[in-house]
Design a protein that fits this description.
The complex is a heterodimer.
Chain A: E1 2-13, E2 16-27, E3 31-35, H1 42-50, E4 57-62, E5 65-66, H2 72-78, E6 80-82, H3 95-104, H4 115-126, H5 141-154, E7 159-163, H6 171-188, E8 191-195, H7 199-205, E9 208-213, E10 216-221, H8 223-228, H9 230-237
Parallel strand pairs in A: 3-8, 3-9, 6-7, 7-8
Antiparallel strand pairs in A: 1-2, 1-4, 4-5, 9-10
Helix pairs in contact in A: 3-4, 3-5, 4-5, 6-7
Chain B: H1 3-17, H2 20-23, H3 26-49, H4 59-77, H5 81-102, H6 108-128, H7 130-133, E1 139-140, H8 150-172, H9 175-185, H10 187-192, H11 197-223, E2 225-226, H12 233-246, H13 253-267, H14 274-289, H15 293-301
Antiparallel strand pairs in B: 1-2
Classes of the chains: A alpha/beta, B mainly alpha.
């Protein structure tokens, strides 16, 4: 059954059509990759789902409920968590406090007033617990990305939307990161919706890949189908 | 800071302060009373500007609302000044709620401009509604105590300052306070984690306005004369300077800023209007060399304190 569904979503910025009638489904428990060349509309699609932008037309349905146009904080409470392409840490707050914000605002939070222990747990999950009392602005890019994942997990989402979390990692680290995300999915019973430029990673991790090109839904299928598709190769490499 | 440590320090400091009337003359007590007023103003403004990133220029205006509400009630309707102060606080918080809701969708400079406009409108109304407010002549109001004594007012202001600090502490170090700081850092990221940004901003505005109303109400009755000086922009910028110089976004910063600038201003009072210039220069120097204020400076100098903060992006200059 589809956990998250987009129905004919469109979004225009002035004269530019960022997304045009894009429909997609994300099945519960799967890892779905979202790929496409620069400017294809991937992040716009994420913003429409997360409530950061309102679609001009179309609907977003999550667990059978219409969540189109709800504000981001309400969408989060429904169980959708996201990370940002350019990380947005709370710079003057410690990592523990950063994650704490997610803990205390989650309606599904398991902490009874003690958000610190829960926040620490999520820092451990992503492996930055030794930075718990460091202000987030002192972190490097990779640590910031890990912190964002911890923060998102702390809201106890049903679906985790990752926007290019592998940028800045070397090939060895990418392999580990892919394993890590798959493990997260299995252990926390998550669904993962994942924008990524690192093709090898998405091909290894995803069960389904959706390809956008110039605001249009180009195709979708298994990773094998996608890499073999002439339209995808065309979109990436041109004639 | 743990709760127990905060209350220990607060009550120890208040205990030491309460000895002051034994040793200080009327003039010095007056300076202390005014400092306590500014402590309340700067600390509550810090909740807005330092913890949720809303730079409001209407804070002195809300003190004026508190002062004039209580003053007019006492003069025109014979309301007990204490009840007046409470009603004035309520009026300030209601108006704060209104302005907060009005400014919901505004960020940054737009909020500042709107509150600046609100502040000026209020000043003009007060100046011109002579029949009710006595305009620039000032409204003579009764005091809070039967027999006038500086010491009594000192204790009243000390008590009110403690209440202010406790309310702020409770808020800032609660779960709500965590959301406040998240909103100040990055509204979009905060919203994506389930923080109701609108609610946070309105709450901060309301609480901060109420505390300004309380401070203004008490201060007016202490002075026995309420003038448009209380809700003036001069006062607003003074409160702003105190917060910035003391350390915006730190709990103790505005407290330090209020005392040091008020005491300093007594020394340079002789230079008349130029003392505002001196404040401006100090604020500039602090902003350039200690962007986190005196508190930031202290934190980076003290052994064992946090590492020197680098909030100002490097411009590449040497």
């Amino acid at each position: 059954m589809a956990l998250l569904e987009g129905l004919r979503l469109s979004k225009r910025f002035g004269g530019v059509t960022a997304l045009s009638e894009v429909s997609f489904t994300v099945e519960e428990g799967t890892i779905v990759g979202l790929i496409g060349p620069n400017g294809a509309g991937k992040t716009t699609l994420f913003n429409l789902v997360a409530g950061a932008l309102k679609p001009d037309s179309g609907r977003v349905v999550f667990r059978g409920e219409d969540i189109t146009g709800l504000s981001p904080n309400i969408v989060c409470r429904h169980g959708i968590a996201r990370t940002f392409q350019v990380t947005r840490p709370f710079g003057t707050m410690t990592c523990l406090e950063n994650v704490g914000v997610g803990v205390i605002n989650s309606p599904r939070s398991e902490s009874d007033g003690n958000w610190r222990a829960t926040a620490l747990h999520y820092l451990e999950t992503v492996g930055v617990e030794d930075l718990a009392f460091t202000e987030a602005r002192h972190l490097n890019v990779v640590q910031k990305k890990k912190l964002e994942i911890a923060r998102a997990l702390a809201t106890r989402p049903k679906i985790l939307m990752l926007d290019e979390v592998l940028g800045g990692l070397n090939s060895q680290e990418i392999v580990q990161a892919v394993d890590f995300i798959r493990r997260l999915r299995d252990e926390l019973h998550l669904t993962v919706f994942w924008i990524e430029h690192v093709m090898g990673a998405i091909m290894k991790a995803a069960e389904k890949v959706i390809v956008l090109d110039q605001g249009q839904h180009l195709m979708e299928g298994t990773p094998e189908q996608v890499v073999a598709d002439s339209r995808v190769i065309h979109a990436y490499l041109g004639e | 800071m743990t709760d127990i440590r905060f209350y220990l320090i607060l009550f120890a400091a208040a205990g030491l302060f309460s000895l002051l009337p034994l040793g200080l003359g009327d003039y010095h007590l007056h300076v202390m009373i005014v400092s306590l007023y500014y402590l309340m103003m700067a600390s509550s403004w810090n909740l807005l500007a330092g913890y949720t990133g809303q730079v409001s220029f209407a804070h002195a205006a809300f003190a004026g609302i508190g002062a004039y509400t209580s003053g007019i009630l006492a003069v025109k309707f014979g309301v007990n000044p204490w009840a007046g102060v409470i009603i004035g606080t309520a009026a300030a918080s209601l108006l704060g709620l209104g302005v907060g809701v009005l400014c919901l969708r505004m960020g940054g400079i737009y909020l500042s401009l709107t509150t600046l406009g609100f502040s000026e409108i209020l000043r003009i109304v007060i100046t011109n509604e002579y029949d009710i407010t006595r305009g620039t002549m000032g409204l003579q109001v009764p005091g809070l105590v039967e027999e006038y004594s500086k010491a009594a007012y000192f204790y009243i202001m000390l008590g009110a300052a403690m209440i202010t600090l406790i309310v702020l502490y409770k808020l800032i170090y609660s779960n709500k306070g965590l959301c406040f700081r998240a909103v100040q850092n990055d509204e979009r990221a905060a919203a994506s984690l389930g923080v109701d940004v609108v609610k946070v901003r309105v709450l901060a505005f309301t609480v901060s306005s109420a505390l300004a109303g309380l401070a203004g109400g008490l201060y007016g009755h202490y002075l026995h004369l309420i003038t448009p000086e209380i809700p003036s922009l001069d006062q607003q910028f003074l409160v702003l300077s105190m917060t910035v110089i003391g350390g915006m976004g730190s709990f103790l910063g505005p407290v330090i800023g209020a005392f040091s600038l008020e005491i300093l201003s007594e020394y340079i009072r002789a230079y008349g209007e130029y003392h505002v210039l001196v404040f401006g220069l100090i604020a500039l120097v602090v902003a350039r060399f200690a962007p986190n204020g005196l508190m930031g400076l202290a934190a980076s100098r003290l052994p064992g304190g946090p590492a020197p903060a680098v909030t100002v992006p490097s411009t590449g200059k040497s």
